[in-house]
Recover the amino acids of this structure.
């Protein structure tokens, strides 16, 4: 579809070819697999399920069902925006086109800060998990901080080499991860075949009834973070207006099935002992260990491939938002530099990885990587969820303003309203008063980021009155 079509919402102003990415490099399968690799199902489930069980009890898989529905609602918003204006800027472009340049600047800073903080968790756990595997199976002790630096350097080298090879490698890690998870699940089901039942799907077995679902739901939502990976890859996709939606919904469906299966298997393997699951640092690995050491090794390996695949996919995708923001003038222009041969945004990749590694070393050097993972990921999620919320609010305004003839009360009003509610509740649970330290400080830190973003946005918008013309000016499939 020609990007220069009549579209008052697009503001099409072709970018200099020197600032364009490698268009058409990724197929719909590439984009979908990259999205699922970014989610990192093994990594997310390993470190998140125990907390969900502590909140929801035996029927904790039901919280995953509810979370999948919530993420699908958010996916509708991303899909509808991408059909109209596919862009590497993702939520920044969508919000900026709707509410103006100041909002785009604020969204860019908040979203980029959230992504960098969140990926710092992945950076830390990459070295921490590798340290655990080497120590357990080879009796080799290498500081996790050193391993983390090695993995970051390797990831940076690979992502700069090009979006296609990086996506291929991340996809291979993801496929291997899913295979290992499936092998472990099958053996656990065989081992505990006499204990199979439908208790995990019985609403009556939720802890404290609906309140258990309410407590577990926000935690389950964050298992899916990374679902939006496809949008920033739009410019490099073969069919950006449709591939984003395909990647979102296929990823949410497959990840929901995977999480529900893993949750059921874990519950069966622990004989529905909620206290034991909640007390385990990594329940799925412990369940595998109880059957056979080799099975536990497969689980450890699945976790490692998940972490590395997520690091690669997240870096590939989220750095594009930094690149797009710099290309449009929301961030310093040199950050929008690309390599001549592969059209890779090398400068934004360097900024992304270096800042994430710096955060890890400054705040997590003397902390256990697993503990740091849970803490820093929560702060990043607060910032990211804020942008999810604003994007859902923006969708009906965008379509009423720019595509009134295409406006659908269901797709562009009802579903985003439900999406706003779906993300608003877990966001409230993260910022409400009474959180234990260090989580009690995170709402204040998030508020500080918002204030800085607002002040910088006001300054930049006042200094450069042309920003409004440049936001969203580069359409993914523009000639």
């Amino acid at each position: 579809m020609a990007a220069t079509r009549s579209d008052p919402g697009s503001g099409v102003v072709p970018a200099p070819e020197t600032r364009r990415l490698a268009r058409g490099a990724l197929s719909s399968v590439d984009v979908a697999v990259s999205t699922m690799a970014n989610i990192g199902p093994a990594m997310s489930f390993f470190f998140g399920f125990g907390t969900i069980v502590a909140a929801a009890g035996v029927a904790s898989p039901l919280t995953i069902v509810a979370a999948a529905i919530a993420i699908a609602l958010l996916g509708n918003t991303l899909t509808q925006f991408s059909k109209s204006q596919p862009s590497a800027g993702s939520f920044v472009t969508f919000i900026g086109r709707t509410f103006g340049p100041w909002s785009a600047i604020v969204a860019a800073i908040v979203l980029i800060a959230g992504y960098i903080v969140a990926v710092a968790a992945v950076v830390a756990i990459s070295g921490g998990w590798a340290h655990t595997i080497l120590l357990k199976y080879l009796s080799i002790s290498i500081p996790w901080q050193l391993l983390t630096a090695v993995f970051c350097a390797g990831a940076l080298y690979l992502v700069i080499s090009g979006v296609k090879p990086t996506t291929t490698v991340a996809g291979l890690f993801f496929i291997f991860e899913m295979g290992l998870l499936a092998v472990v699940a099958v053996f656990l089901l065989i081992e505990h075949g006499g204990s199979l039942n439908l208790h995990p799907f019985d609403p009556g077995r939720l802890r404290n009834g609906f309140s258990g679902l309410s407590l577990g739901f926000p935690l389950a939502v964050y298992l899916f973070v990374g679902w939006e990976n496809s949008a920033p890859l739009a410019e490099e996709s073969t069919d950006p207006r449709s591939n984003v939606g395909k990647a979102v919904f296929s990823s949410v469906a497959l990840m929901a099935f995977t999480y529900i299966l893993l949750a059921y298997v874990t519950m069966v393997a622990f004989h529905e002992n909620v206290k034991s699951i909640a007390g385990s640092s990594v329940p799925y690995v412990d369940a595998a260990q109880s059957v056979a050491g080799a099975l536990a090794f497969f689980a450890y390996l699945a976790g490692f491939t998940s972490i590395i695949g997520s690091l690669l996919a997240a870096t590939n995708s989220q750095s594009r938002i930094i690149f797009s923001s710099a290309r449009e003038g929301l961030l310093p222009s040199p950050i929008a530099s690309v390599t001549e041969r592969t059209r890779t945004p090398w400068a934004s990749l360097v900024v992304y990885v270096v800042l994430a590694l710096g955060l890890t070393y400054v705040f997590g050097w003397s902390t256990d990587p697993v503990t740091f993972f849970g803490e820093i990921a929560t702060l990043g999620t607060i910032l990211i969820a804020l942008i999810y919320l604003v994007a859902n609010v923006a969708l009906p305004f965008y379509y009423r303003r720019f595509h009134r003839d295409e406006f659908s009360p269901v797709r562009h009003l009802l579903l985003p309203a439900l999406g706003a509610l779906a993300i608003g509740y877990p966001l409230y649970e993260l910022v409400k008063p009474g959180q234990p330290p260090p989580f009690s400080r995170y709402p204040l830190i998030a508020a500080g980021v918002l204030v800085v973003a607002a002040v910088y946005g006001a300054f930049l918008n006042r200094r450069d009155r042309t920003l409004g013309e440049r936001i969203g000016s580069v359409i993914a499939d523009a000639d």
Q: What stands out?
A: The mean pLDDT is 91. The chain has one domain: 17-465. The CA atoms of residues 4 and 478 lie 6 Å apart. The domain at 17-465 is CATH 1.20.1740.10 (Amino acid/polyamine transporter I).
